[in-house]
Amino acid sequence: MRQYIIAGNWKMHKDSTETRELCEAIRKGHTPDSRFELIVCPPFTSIPAAVESLSGTDIAVGGQNMCWESEGAFTGEVSASMLLTSGCKYVILGHSERRQYFSESDQLIGKKVQLALSSGLLPIVCVGEVIEDREAGRTEDVVGNQFDGIFADIDKTGFDKCVLAYEPVWAIGTGKTATPEMAEEVHKFIRGRIASKYGDESADKMRILYGGSMKPSNSTELLSQPDIDGGLIGGASLKAENFLGISSTVK
Fold first, then answer.
1. Residue 176: pLDDT above 80?
2. Annotated catalytic sites, by residue?
3. How far are the Cα atoms of 96, 145, 161, 176 from residue 77, in angstroms, in the given order?
4. How far apart are CA 151 and CA 109, in angstroms?
5. Considering the entire predicted model, what is its pTM?
6. How far apart are CA 196 and CA 216, in angstroms?
7. 3-state SS track over the chain
8. d(CA 181, CA 225)
9. Dist CA 64 CA 250 (whole Å)
10. Rounded Cα gap, residues 218 and 173, in angstroms
């Protein structure tokens, strides 16, 4: 049985004071449950506040991105070791907004994944198609090519430490959501791709999250699908009652 993950991607929201308030509310409302792991991913400047606020709990903290190099003259970037020493366990890599606004390629994302793994961070690696690809019937081609490009140079040992997230780009921040059946279809395809490259054992163990406007009103149906192992939550993670409302629907 795969352990679910409910991960909150706060994006560019919540300063340190707001982070402490939200983390305290999450902490008060959360009851540890072996069926799922909670993760919060605040902005870089709020990571220490989150780590401090959640100390002594089973709630993990993650970064939203990291540099492809371990150190150097990269103004404005944050390294893997900086995330680790700040208290992060996870890091989100390849989010569609990084692709769209910062022109990140599959190859660059793959380089980040390799560095995260070698540094001791657990990557949450995102793949997903835009609306034009979905409407043209290219979803599997796009998602498959992203998967192949990112993991081209990553062996089974490294891959097995990752978490994947399928995020239909057309359902992020738009209020649109893939139906549970649509989401399951792509998750199942990804699991098959894993089996082809890394074997059935890796495919069976890999946790694949859904990242397209999951909220308490639709999480029960989405999380009931056999290949959906949790959610990478955007807007609904910014209020404790919504974030915890999603985790409460894990069966």
1. no
2. 95, 167
3. 18, 27, 24, 32
4. 9
5. 0.96
6. 34
7. CCCEEEEEECCCCCCHHHHHHHHHHHHHHCCCCCCEEEEEECCHHHHHHHHHHCCCCCCEEEECCCCCCCCCCCCCCCCHHHHHHHCCCEEEECCHHHHHHHCCCHHHHHHHHHHHHHHCCEEEEEECCCHHHHHCCCHHHHHHHHHHHHCCCCCHHHHCCCEEEECCHHHCCCCCCCCHHHHHHHHHHHHHHHHHHHCHHHHHHCCEEECCCCCHHHHHHHHCCCCCCEEEECHHHHCHHHHHHHHCCCC
8. 8
9. 24
10. 15
Mean pLDDT taken over the chain: 96
Cβ distance 249 to 216 under 8 Å?
Answer: yes
Which of 229, 112, 249 shows the shortest CA–CA distance to 166?
A: 229
- Does CATH place domain 4-247 in 3.20.20.70? yes
> Mean of the pLDDT values across residues 83-95?
98
pLDDT, tens digit (0-9, with 9 covering 90-100), for 37-49: 999 999 999 999 9
Cβ count near 177 (within 10 Å): 21
What pLDDT, on a 0 to 100 scale, did the predictor assign at position 170? 84
Whether the CB-CB separation of 116 and 66 falls below 8 Å is answered with: yes
146-154 average pLDDT score: 98
